[in-house]
Amino acid sequence: MKDLDVMLRPATPADESFLFDLRKATMDEHLRRAGESTDERAHWERIRYRYNDAYVVFQGSERLGLFKSVRDANAWTIVQIQILPAYQGRGIASHLIGEFLLQADSAGVPVELSVLKGNPAIDLYRRLGFEVTHTTEASLHMRRG
């Protein structure tokens, strides 16, 4: 993973078109399977949710994805992580989450996330030590630490 060389920078309004296309490319299939909305309004609501906590993932000058997280006193939450399909399977999400988990471990806080049922990312989260704490009709809530 030494050549991964990914960086994060805060999302800006100039990234919104990229974030919309990214969301559709990475989430539509999972949302449909879960019976959730894939309309434009729903996508924009999710993109704008906690926008100040959103970071665009870069490799060189190329935008690859999104990492959105919240750091509260009692737990940190991975709100969204999305990597363009062409870059999935290269360890990018694993690297980003791993770095986040190292920081959380140093701070002595657990990490939580929610994932739609049927999303293959569930396997990644389990490999990284997350366990299901509860479920809803559409998603699994997971926690590590």
Give a written overview of the molecule.
It is a single chain. With 145 residues, this protein is an alpha+beta fold. The protein has a single domain, classed as 3-Layer(aba) Sandwich (Aminopeptidase), CATH 3.40.630.30. It is 34% helix and 32% strand. The chain is built from four helices and seven strands; from the N terminus they run E-H-H-E-E-E-H-E-H-E-E. The chain has helices spanning 16-33, 40-48, 92-107, 121-127; strands at 6-10, 54-59, 62-71, 76-83, 111-116, 131-135, 139-144. The protein has a seven-stranded mixed β-sheet, with helices on both faces. The longest helix is centred in the first third of the chain and has 18 residues, at 16-33. It is globular. 26% of the residues are buried. The model has no long low-confidence stretch (mean pLDDT 94).
Topology of helices and strands:
Blueprint: E1 6-10, H1 16-33, H2 40-48, E2 54-59, E3 62-71, E4 76-83, H3 92-107, E5 111-116, H4 121-127, E6 131-135, E7 139-144
Parallel strand pairs: 4-5
Antiparallel strand pairs: 1-2, 2-3, 3-4, 5-7, 6-7
Task: Put the structure in a nutshell.
By secondary structure, the protein is an alpha+beta fold.
Number of individual domains: 1
CA-CA gap between termini: 24 Å
> Which strand order do you get reading across the main beta sheet?
1-2-3-4-5-7-6
Poorly predicted runs = none
Number of strands: 7
Order of secondary-structure elements = EHHEEEHEHEE
Q: Which structural class do the helices and strands define? A: alpha+beta
Can you summarize the main beta sheet?
Answer: 7 strands, mixed
Percent range for helical residues? 25-40%
Mean model confidence by pLDDT: 94
